[in-house]
Amino acid sequence: MPERIFGGTKVLALIADPVAQARAPGLANGLLHQREQFGPFVLLPMQVSYAALADVLGGLRQIRDFAGAIVSMPHKVHIVPLLDEITPQAQQVGAVNVIRKSEGGWLTGTVLDGEGFVGGLMRSGHRIEGASCLLVGAGGAASAIAFGLAKYGCASLRIVNRTAAKAICLASRIRHFFPQVQVQSGEATEGEFDLAINGTPLGMDANDPLPIPEAVVSRASVVADCVIAPEMTRLLETAKGHGCAIQTGAPMLAAQMDMMLEFMGVE
Question: What superfamily in CATH does domain 114-252 come from?
Fold first, then answer.
C-alpha cells in the first residue's frame, strides 16, 4: 500500500511541553516508514500544558482513530492518576512515558525510559553490572533510570535532587525492591563514579547551570545526559574536557522506540 495518510490512518502522538525540540516524531515516523506502516499510522507532536493535560486526555479518549502516545516532560508523573491502568513496571517507578488506547477509550500506560537508557548504554559498550553510579534527578525519567540501573546490577547508586525529600523517597523505593544495591541520597561530596547521569531537563537551554558540578564530573569515568536536544549539552562538553567518556540522550530514545511503537499497537 502507498505510504500516505488516509481516512483509516491511526493517529499516535507525542505529548509534551515544550515539544519543538523533540526528536521522537522524526524517529517514530522514520521507523514506521521502515516497517511499511507509515500511512496506517502517523505520529504527531502535541504541545500540551500541565493545566490542560486532563482535558486533552479526555478528548483523546473520544477520538476513535487515536491509538496511543509517547509522554514526555513534564507529564510523566502527573499523567499516572489520569489513566485507567498502568503496568506493574510503571507502578514500581511511579511514572509513565507511553500510553495506548483500547476499545471504549480505556487508557493504559507503561514506562520504558529505564530499559531505553540501559539499552543505549550497553549498545555503546558501557557496563552497568557492578558499576558505581551517580544520578541527578528524581522525576519520572530519573526514577525509571534508577530502577533500570538497579535491575541490571549496578553495585551502588547515589541520588541527588534539588528537592532532597524526593531523592530520599526514590532511594527508599529502590532499596525496597533491590536490597542488594547500596543506595544513598544527598550530594556527592567525595568518591569516584563509573557512571554519572543527568536525569533532569537542565541543559535544554544554553543558559542552564550544570546539573552536575564540574568537580564531580571530573571524578566520573562516563557522563551520560538524558537531554536529547541539544545533543551536545554543556554538561557533556565539560565532561569531554575532563577526558570522560560521554553518552548523549539520543540513544536512550532510539533504544526504546521499537518498544514504544509496539506498545501503542504497531505490529
Answer: NAD(P)-binding Rossmann-like Domain (3.40.50.720)
Please answer whether residues 122 and 173 qualify as being in contact, where contact means their C-beta atoms are separated by less than 8 angstroms. no
pLDDT digits (tens, 9 = 90+) for 192-240: 999 999 999 999 999 999 999 999 999 999 999 999 989 999 999 999 9
CATH of 10-111, one of 3.40.50.1220, 3.40.50.10860, 3.75.10.10, 3.40.1000.20: 3.40.50.10860
In this prediction the pTM is: 0.91
Alpha carbon of 61 to those of 40, 46, 83, 96, 265: distances in Å?
19, 15, 10, 17, 16
Catalytic residue among 76, 101, 151, 166: 76
Kindly state the DSSP code that residue 38 receives in the 8-state scheme.
Answer: B
Query: In this structure, how many other beta carbons lie within 10 angstroms of the beta carbon of residue 122?
Result: 15
Active site residue 166: no
Domain boundaries along the sequence of the chain: 10-111, 114-252
Provide DSSP, 193-224.
EEEEEE-SSTTSSTTPPPSS-HHHHTTEEEEE
